[in-house]
Amino acid sequence: MDLNEKVDMIGRLYLGLEQIEDCKEFSALIPEVRTNFVYASKESTTPEDVLAVDGRVSVVDGFPKAIGRIKFGASGYMAHLLLEIRKKDSEIRSIIDFANNLEIAEFLKAYSKEKGWDFSVVDRSFEPENMKDAEGEAISWMVEEAVRVTGGKMPRVFYETGAVGKEPVSILVGKDPLEVAEQICELARSYRESGQGMR
Question: Where do the Thiamine-phosphate synthase ThiN domain residues begin and end (predicted)?
């Protein structure tokens, strides 16, 4: 990865993060494990090629707030997830995770339909036993399942039902962090306007 690509990536993720930090409504969608926002280089093959927020995004004074700085290799799980998603659709270079519960799940289903987005649910109770210990394998199964549900296309939004000891989260995917930030903020505002997420 050359210096120009690194500079461009850092700038885009930084600007996307700024949008999210200004979006108070997104605070209601930050999960207990906190949010990460990741961006892969064009030729990404390992988590070291993926830019992320070190320490993730939490809630400070009612607003989303990045806890650490942006750096390559700062994410494990989300970086692996993005790399697996890119095997299915190389156009996708950025993803963000956010909360899930029954209320959010119902909202996401209706919202995706209204937006014309592909949407899927991954039921972790069907995860093969032999994959539960190997994080990488579980991620590849999850992505395969998300794509299978939408008939072979990578969904714009999908969520997983929680497994034992794992908080259920939702994922939104996009071509770059600016697109992802814009869409997640619009989604969060719509969720708030629907009268939900009033905490």
Answer: 16-185
Span 128-180, pLDDT tens digits: 776 655 555 588 899 999 999 999 999 999 998 866 667 789 999 999 999 99
Comparing C-alpha atoms, which of 172, 166, 119 is closest to residue 138?
166
What is the rounded CA–CA span in Å between residue 123 and residue 145?
9
**Torsion angles phi and psi, residue 51, rounded to 5:** -85, 140
CATH of domain 3-193: 3.40.225.10
Residue 175 CA from chain centroid, whole number: 12
Q: Alpha carbon of 86 to those of 25, 72, 170, 191: distances in Å?
A: 29, 17, 17, 28
Per domain, the residue ranges of the chain are 3-193
3-state secondary structure of 152: coil
Model-wide pTM > 0.85:
yes
Cβ contact 13:75 at 8 Å? no
CA distances from 156 to 35, 96, 104, 111, 133 (A): 17, 11, 16, 11, 27
CA 194 to CA 199: how far, in whole Å? Answer: 13
| Adjacent-strand bridge partners of 119 | 157
